[in-house]
Design brief:
Elements (H helix, E strand, L loop, with lengths): L2 H10 L6 H18 L8 H18 L4 H7 L4 H25 L7 H6 L9 H10 L7 H15 L9 H11 L9
Length: 185
């Protein structure tokens, strides 16, 4: 069964709402909205994509097509509802396959390494160093980076940083930094 037939069936059975495709696509549209947000940074890409893949996997495992969609499916005959649900799950499977084939979820990927610069979790100097190297910045004083890492670590562990987003953490960090940047921007 394809989408055109599903639309016709929904129309013929007086289930005249675009709520089904909207809720089926909500996981994807939420991800796109996050990626296009004004406050979004490259350090968050890995997290958003990992969450998208996880949501798709969880919905597949639980055969969850959404509460609103499930209510609409109950208005159909049982056979037709099963066919529609199966098609929706195929959509999730295809979306998961597409994302998995086109995005590198490995810990060695560029986005994984750069995500360590988001300042949202504690990271080691090695992870900071890997992130800088992933950005292909050859003119960074790595010994100076280590000293900066120590300063950043102390500031980030302060209580005022708890609950702050990445952008807020950077603003607070730069306002407290009493040393020049290793590489002016």
């Amino acid at each position: 069964m394809n989408c055109i037939i599903q639309w016709q069936v929904m129309h013929q059975t007086k289930v005249r709402s675009s709520v089904s495709p909207f809720h089926i696509l909500k996981v994807r549209s939420d991800c796109i909205e996050a990626l296009e947000a004004k406050s979004f940074s490259i350090t968050s890409v890995f997290k958003v994509m990992t969450e998208l893949k996880g949501k798709l996997e969880r919905r597949l495992k639980d055969t969850f097509v959404g509460f609103a969609v499930n209510n609409k499916l109950k208005q159909l005959t049982p056979d037709l509802a099963k066919k529609c649900e199966a098609d929706f799950l195929v959509f999730y499977e295809r979306a998961k396959k597409y994302v998995s084939e086109r995005y590198d979820f490995s810990e060695n990927s560029f986005h994984s390494k750069v995500s360590k610069l988001g300042l949202t979790t504690a990271v080691s100097y090695g992870e900071y160093s890997d992130a800088v190297q992933a950005c292909s910045r050859k003119d960074i004083d790595m010994d100076g980076l280590y000293e900066e890492y120590g300063m950043v670590e102390a500031i980030l562990s302060s209580s005022e940083m708890e609950g702050c987003h990445s952008e807020e953490r950077y603003l607070k960090l730069f306002s407290k930094a009493e040393v020049p940047l290793l590489h002016p921007m």
